[in-house]
Tyrosine recombinase XerC
Amino acid sequence: MEQSRIPLPKHINDFLDWIDVEKGLSSKTQENYRRFLEKFLVWLKNNNLNGILPHQLTPEHIWDYRVHLSRHSPTRNNKPLRKTTQNYYLIALRAFLGYFVAKDIVSLPPDKITLSRPDKEKTVKFLTLEQLNKLFLAPDTSTIQGIRDRTILETFFSTGMRVSELTSLNLEQIRIMPGAKDLELGIVGKGGRARTVYFSKNAIGWLEKYISARTIDNDKEKALFINYSGKKAASRRLTPRAIEKNMKKYIISAGLPITTTPHVLRHSFATDLLTQGVDLRVVQEFLGHKNILATQIYTHVTNKRLRDIHRQFHGGNDQNS
């Protein structure tokens, strides 16, 4: 049957294959898209639209679905869906329509689906340099576990890596030349996107100490960051959960906000660069964001910096004029 004559619901599996093969999205993202689109399919069925064809979908249908999300989709505690959550469903539907464009199937253009304005502007949590120094000093570096944890914290702040990217590192990837002041490493991040991360002088110094301690310990583990407790026969690669648990211990001992997570160190990395005047698009490359919109959560930094520059240099701020 010609694809344009196939009802919308029957395109879902082909769409999921497409975002896997063509877009390279992770299995978790595919799972989320499937879940978000299931609500749309239920809405179609409840409105006797189960047989609707791609070209028959109209802006009016989209509007009615948005009203349904806003007013008739309560959460478990019987409250309406938040605007940000509604947007997840709309983003999935927009991606679904993008599939039709890619396959030359006539349908409603994806840009006809606009997103809701969030309930409130998302704020980014980050640590100041003073707070970071307190955190770095928290591990007991007289032990190999403490050296490992100090190295992990320094690496997070130096590279801006996600916790899953850091835990996937292998020892053989780290090649530090004697007296090296720079170290760069190619990694594959979210969505299968490759990028280069860079290690600061401090991070390199702690990596050298940690690798040296591991050499003395004479372990043969493949993973860069390993566990020193539990069953030796099991995989000793540190998990994201283990790193988060260790970090919470240091956060408490350093007297820092309990909401601090490894991702907050990624935010701190980006915030530090922007504070130093690095362009937002360069920070996008450092973070491995596919879209600049993902990096724009850091506009709180650029906005403050622009305000400070305006106050310092704009002639209209001269009290003597």
In short: The longest helix spans residues 27-46. Strands lie at 183-188, 194-199. The mean pLDDT is 87. The chain has two domains: 3-112, 129-309.
